[in-house]
Amino acid sequence: MNTEHPHPAAPVLPAMLAEEIPPGVQEVILPNGERALAYSTGPTNPPPAPAAPATPVAQPIPAWAKSTALLAPTVGGGIAIAAVGLSAAAPGLIAVSHVLWSAVAAIAAGGTVAAVVIGRVRARLTAAQRPHVTQHITAKGLFGRANGTINHR
Q: Which of 1, 84, 129, 132 could form a disulfide linkage to 153, CB 3.0–4.6 angstroms apart?
């Protein structure tokens, strides 16, 4: 093995005739100067050089650009009118928000009062309806028989 070239030299094959080359295959020159056959992915003929620029032809404006240009002032005007309307309605909106907060406070206070009243009424009803039981039990001695009375009121 040759130490100057780590790979063995390629065998020299006889040249192919032009008729033997299949379609789509062309001769290329590799970066090291060697000629080889390869499949081409692009056109075999180089593309023609671009011609000198001709005078530009005016193209029509697309329909979407026209409608967008016409809608822009309309949308902007609508936003401006909405801003003026909100600024005119601001004092009324502030008053309505104060009324709503007052209503919330009244509802909360009413709920608290209702809960306290219901609790007191329920306590009085249950105390009046609860039976009062009294028991008297007596027994003589450690293991004596117990006697008792129960009084219901």
A: 132
